[in-house]
Amino acid sequence: MKRGTGIDLYQEFIDVFHKEEMLAFFDFLTDRGAVDSLSGLCKISRPKPGKADSRYLSLLFIVDTPDEDAWKKAEARFAEINWDGMRDCLPEFESALSIPFTLREFTGNYFQEIDIYLKSNSAVSRSFIVGALCPAIFSVARLRAGEPVFREDLPDSEKDMKESLLVDKDRGDSLVSRLRDFFKF
Amino acid sequence: MDIQTRKEANATIVSVTGKMDAVTAPEYEKLLRRLMDEGEKSFVNDFSGLVYISSAGLRSILATAKALKAVQGRLLFSGVTGPVKDVFEISGFGSLFQMYETPDAALKSVG
Predict the structure, then answer these.
(1) Coil, helix or strand for A147?
(2) Confidence of residue A5 (pLDDT cuts 50, 70, 90)
(3) Chain B residue numbers touching A106 (CB-CB < 8 A)
(4) To which H or E segment does residue A9 belong?
(5) From B21, B54, B90, residue closest to A111, measured CB to CB
(6) DSSP characters for A85-100?
């Protein structure tokens, strides 16, 4: 789990995270809470206003993996999730990008980021996260999870958040656009 | 995990050593809640002795921060290094909270 030489993708990820803001988080157990499930925390973020070229929500899953076996188990669990399955239960869903990444050293946690791209007329609110997004995540990823805990100032209504999701289409800083820039594709 | 607290003029320093996981994180959260109930609103978490933090530890910190925000309190960090620092960076905690090299530096910022 050492990061590669030459390309500092780790730093790229960190730079992107600094341009996102947390909306909410929730606890979860994998495998619907089965005996051998893994526990973790999922952070739901969005690009800070004016910092992205797409309407996406970033899901960062932080899984407790105190040893290498647990780490491999977490990696296998997340590899088998079909995030495109969210299309069946989330009308606002457009696409998903799964981004595993490696760390400089073993921290005892497995990290997996999923960027969920939403249709252009989608708005994000507490009710959307609680009533639509989270149930879709829990279903597709087979999680048993707690109620999301929200950032204090997240508006309740869709209308209140529409403006904050308006984006600069000329220059973006989403992870995808950053990686595209990085690899020039 | 071991937790030591030290009351300073403008904040309470909470020194956490060892591992903060599902078993020990509630202990941290409960302690800070009790201190909040006693009127303390500013905390400096000295994590220089913390070697591991699990999702439960992150959750306890977020829950504590949320409770403190409701009473206009403050939660600062010092001495976050190594794997714990990596977790903070990746989870975004590094930008959610004010981080300092030492407890003294954090205390100065509390004023």
Answers:
(1) coil
(2) low
(3) 83
(4) helix A9-17
(5) B90
(6) GGGGT-TTEEEEEEEE
Q: Do B69 and A63 touch (CB under 8 A)?
A: no
Question: Which pTM value belongs to this model?
Answer: 0.80
d(Cα B82, Cα B101) in Å, to the nearest integer? 13
E strands in chain A: 20-29, 39-47, 56-64, 93-100, 109-118, 144-145, 149-150
> In terms of CA atoms, which chain B residue is nearest residue A44?
B91
> Alpha-carbon distance A85 to A82, whole Å?
6
Name the amino acid, one letter, at B29.
E
- Right CATH number for B2-110 from 3.30.750.24, 3.30.9.10, 3.40.50.1400, 1.25.40.10? 3.30.750.24
Euclidean distance between CA atoms A109 and A7, whole angstroms: 22
Helix and strand numbers, DSSP H then E, in chain B: 5, 5
pLDDT: which is higher, A118 or A178: A118
Indicate the Cα dihedral angle B26, A136, A118, A112, nearest 10°. 50
- Structural domain that includes position A102: 9-179
Q: Given an 8 Å threshold on Cβ–Cβ distance, is B84 in contact with A107?
A: yes
Structural domain tally of chain A? 1
Give strand ranges (E) for chain B: 2-7, 12-20, 42-53, 74-78, 98-100
Closest chain A residue to B83, measured at CA? A107
The amino acid occupying position B91 is S
Q: What are the structural domain ranges in chain B?
A: 2-110
Neighboring chain A residues of B54 at a CB cutoff of 8 Å: 39, 64, 66, 108-109
Instruction: Read off the pLDDT band of A53 (50, 70, 90).
Output: low
> At what angle are helices A9-17 and A175-183 packed, to 10 degrees?
150
